[in-house]
Every structure is written in C-alpha cells, then in structure tokens.
Amino acid sequence: MKITLEELRAWVAVVDTGSITSAAEQLDQTSSGVSRALSRLEGKLQTTLMHRTTRRLALTEEGLIFLDHARQILASVEQAEELIAQRRDIPSGRLRVNANTPFTLHVIVPLVAEFRQRYPLIQLELNTDDIVIDLLEQQTDIAIRIGELRDSTLRARVLGSSAIRLLASPDYLEKFGVPENVDALANHQLLGFSQLDVHNVWPVWQREGEFLRIKPTLSASSGETLRQLALAGQGIVRLSDFVSREDRESGRLVQVLATETREQRLPIHAVYYRNQSLTSRITCFLSFLREKIQENHLL
Question: 76, 262 in Cβ contact below 8 A?
C-alpha cells in the first residue's frame, strides 16, 4: 500500500505539536483519526517512527530520517498547489492551438501581438492542419473547427459564423468572361478541395433545387492555397468571408453570381475535450478570441 499525504501530514503535525491531541486540533481531526493515520504509516513502512508514552513522544532513528523526507514531500506539494493557484490568477504555460491555415493566417495571426502583450506568461503554439485532427494524439488544447461538428466527445464554444461567396480575380474574368448563370460554370475553371468534399458544395441552386456540387478543375487541400490560385487567375473559388475580406475590399477578388448565391454561413467553434477542465490559459484565449472577432467583425 502506498503512503498518503493525509498520513504524512498527521505524522509531521504530531512531531511539530508534540502530541496526538494537539495535532488533531491543528488538523481539525479527531485524536483517534490521527492515531490511526500514524499506525497505518508505520505499518506501511514496517518500522516504528516514534515511541509514545503518556508524557512524551520520542522519535526513533528511523523516525528522524523519515521526518526530513516527509517535510520535503509536503513542502513540494504545497509549492505545487501554490503554483497552480497562481496560474489560475495569472494565466501561464504552453497553449497549443490548432486551426486550418486560412483561419490561422487571417484571424489568429493578426491578434497574436495583442494577446501576447495581454498574457505575457502564456507560451502560444500555433499548429495548422487542413483536416480534422485528434486533439489527444496531437497534444492540442484547443482546435478551431469550421462547419458542422460531428464529434460528440468534444465540448465546444461558438466563436461566430462566416458567409461564403464565389470569387474570381478580375484578370480571370477578363480572360474567360463573367458567368451569367449557374449553368455557365460548366465552361469555367473551378477551384475546389481535394480532401474535404463537403466544401465542394457551392451556395448556388441547380435546376433540381439543390446546391451545386462541383467537380474541381484544379484542387488543393488548403483553403489558403485555393485563395492564392484564385488570386493568380486560375479559376473561380468558394471562400469564407474571413479569408477573402481584404481581397474583396482591395478588388483583388470580385464576387460572381451574387444574385444566385444563397445565404449560407459556416459555424465556427473552438473545441476541446469534455473531460478537460478549463485552465485559465484556455479560458482567457477563448474569451480574447471571441471578443476580438466581435469587436473587429472578423467573421
């Protein structure tokens, strides 16, 4: 059987106060409870730590040796508890955040400087994956998921939602023409996803009354790669507003089929495991991110 902290605390308290009765008062326990803790401790160690008489307690040689170690153990535990308490008050430690490349570049990265200034003791680690990862396998604290959630083992906080549009560069449209209707897309270069086929469903109606599912002329695994291809005049692309906002404002990308486009917004969640208690660094990051998204209209 392993020694418990309760037994160590009882033993040290008896030594420090000089009696079982005084130790019991200090620990807010009964004298019989403290006495039993000492008996269990000696039983586990298979040695006598002190000689008890009606008048005094005397440590054995083994008791003297063990006392120093017991004090060190209790001091380490107290120090650890104090550090954890401090971390609750002052967020600190490594925080691993995973998101796809577009969200990382266009939403998180612009906010990093302010976040680090506000929480200088948090060591932020940003990892990008354009496919859904296993949080435990990748040792991830928070993952940003775009679209409907499928994993019921995860807890989630809504960060917002982002509209999606069909876009192309002015150079592409000048060369290949502006599509006048959905059917005209069949004569255009369509940029789509190679791995996440759900993102190849575009927010425009077909004649059958369903959203258009495209077969990409050119595909990539990353939304950021597709954005760069669209900027390079390689075709028409479906992008979320948080990815394309600056391109649309500058005119580098323009919307096509605007009147045919149906309102469709992708929910954006921050997810973490259900059995994970929220540390202060996770809580402050989620609060900060949502605050800045709403304040700056990032989605």
Answer: no
- Strand locations in the chain, DSSP E? 50-52, 57-59, 93-99, 122-128, 142-146, 154-168, 190-193, 201-205, 211-213, 218-220, 236-240, 254-255, 265-273
Q: Does domain 162-266 have CATH number 3.40.190.10?
A: yes
Cα–Cα distances in angstroms (integers) from residue 47 to residues 13, 23, 122, 236, 266, in the given order: 19, 21, 47, 80, 67
Helix, strand, or coil here: 64? helix
Contact yes or no for 274/153 (Cβ under 8 A): yes
Provide the residue count of the chain: 299
- What's the fold here for domain 5-89? Arc Repressor Mutant, subunit A (1.10.10)
Please say whether the beta carbons of 11 and 44 come within 8 A: no
CB 103 within 8 A of CB 242: yes
Asked whether residue 275 carries a pLDDT value surpassing 70, the answer given is no
| Mean of pLDDT values over 181-194 | 95
